[in-house]
Amino acid sequence: MSRIRIVKGKYVKITHGDHNMSTEGHIVSNAAGEIREKGNENGIIYNNFERKGSEVNDDFEIKLSLKRDKAYSTVVPFGILDFKGNYENAHFVFDYSLMLGNIDSLDFKILNEDGSTLYAVKNLPEVVVPSRQIPLLAQDLMKKKPKNDPLQPKKAWDWKSVFDPYNIMSGDYTKIGSYVIFWDGFDNNEIYDSTKFDNKKLKAVIVAKKNGKEKTKEVEFTTNYSEVNWVDVKIDKKNKRIDTTLRVNLKDGGEEGLGQHVGPVSSTYPAKEYEIKYDWEKVPKKVISKWGKEPIKYRTRTYKDLEKLSIEGLNYHWGRNQNHAVAKDLKIIRESYEFYLNSIQSNKNTIGTIELVYNTNGNWMRSGNPGSIKDPLTIGGNIFSRQAICYNIGYIYSLEWYEFYKKNNWRYRDESNEDIEFKETSAHEIGHEIIKKYGGTIYSYGHKETVNPVFQYENSNAIPYPKTGEIDLMPYYTDWLDYSERKRIVVSEKDVLGLIWLTKISIK
Questions:
Q1: Sign of the torsion angle spanned by Cα atoms 120, 124, 126, 129
Q2: Within a domain: residue 48?
Q3: Is 128:168 a contact under the CB 8 Å cutoff?
Q4: Residues 268, 165 within the same domain
Q5: SS (H, E, C) 47-76
Q6: Are 51 and 20 in contact (CB under 8 A)?
């Protein structure tokens, strides 16, 4: 509300008592002659700005509006930086203005679509900043954001400490002025649940109270997942625990090496007699004699067995919690959280479809990730693999990947070891889709710069397995790792934070 007063003549204002005047902007006085200020008792005193409002007027008006600035159009839990280290907003942001008079208290709440309360607080959330300070706050956020170092990437940073100098106390935001409310999405139990913001229509409500009277203003807004729809996150600040739900679409890819066909009895041409031949008869007798084990003639693992192994592998190798051998937690802004992945079989809103194949008595089958066939960069995937995770068991004719045309031989792979490898492969291959959505195709299929992302058998940059501690799930390695050591394999903290980042929320 603006007011202009023009007086043609002398204008005199007399106040019997204190005369207070304040403004959120500037006070400009102009005079063709002198400007005189005089204080008989104490002279003229210059102090810091103090907001003054009407303590007499019982009437008041408030205005609440949702900030639609691009800077506040998305929310990422903890403000986790994107893959390139760019700033991400950690809050739902609202503006409100208080006009005409000061009030006694100001309450704030967020309501679900059904009218139930998602978040409510007497007085306002922990971060409230005067509107006039927002440009300075924005500058400080950009100045103090950590620089992106590829060797030591910082994906979660202490943005809250940047807000602290600008945050005001409850006694300040009940006075006339314009303010910005920052809500981090956590409810009254200090839990952030991304499913509460998945395709939802919410309502922000503010209640101003004075002298037993109250006025309410509200604004509706909609929220949706911004990046993907196949992962949810639940963060419990009190118990320092993060749970994610990953929806996967696993399919039965059948079996290879257990079939039969009709073939000639001898090598004489033209053939005169034919008989039924079985795939396991391809295994040379001298190989069977060497290993001392009969070829597999019936499935030893059902599809449901493979599905269970695949899910267990994802949950273990993508988990950083007390159940992992070495990776016990995830560090976020100097605090430790246990991180759990809960993979569930689904045919709706999934990361992609991938087959589980049982393979024996023949060539080793290379596994591929859900997007390998359709991605133009994965030429290696198109030629040598399918969109499947392969359980290679029993007698397998190994095509050594790095010396593909030179070296091959039959080997016998037993179930105890193949179970371990299949779990790891499931976590790795499905992990490709996760880090591709977060970091891009080159980051994913380049196996973190350890192989050529197009011709993946070119592995001049592969690295040796670390002797102790964590082993990153996603790179390529130069040597062989004993099955007993594979329990040390785990997704890196950076990639776990990337998975959380994928739950980014869009606000409209």
A1: positive
A2: no
A3: yes
A4: no
A5: CCCCCCCCCCCCCCEEEEEECCCHHHCEEC
A6: no
pLDDT 10s digits, 175-232:
888 888 889 999 999 999 999 999 999 999 988 888 888 888 888 999 999 999 999 9
Segment of 48-52, 62-66, 412-416, 477-481 carrying the highest mean pLDDT: 412-416
- Which positions ≥6 away from 14 have C-beta within 8 Å? none
Segments of 274-423 assigned E as strands:
274-278, 330-332, 335-345, 353-359, 362-363, 388-392, 394-399, 408-413
Under DSSP, the state recorded for 320 is B
Residue 44 has pLDDT above 90, yes or no: no
Residue 347 CB-half CA count within 13 A? 1
Which of 307, 322, 278, 506 is closest to 423 using CA atoms? 307
Q: How many CB atoms lie within 10 A of CB 229?
A: 17
Cβ-based burial of 188 (10 A; exposed 0-12, middle 13-18, buried ≥19): exposed
CA distance 78 to 83: 15
Residue 9 placed within a domain: no
Decide: 389 and 421 in contact? Cβ < 8 Å. Answer: no
SS3 state of residue 431? helix
Nearest to 64 by CA among 19, 107, 120, 26: 107
pLDDT in tens, 232-249: 999 999 999 999 999 999
Provide the CA 131 distance to its chain's centre, in angstroms.
30
CB 112, CB 472: distance < 8 Å: no
Number of domains in the chain: 2
Q: Is 448 in the same domain as 313?
A: yes
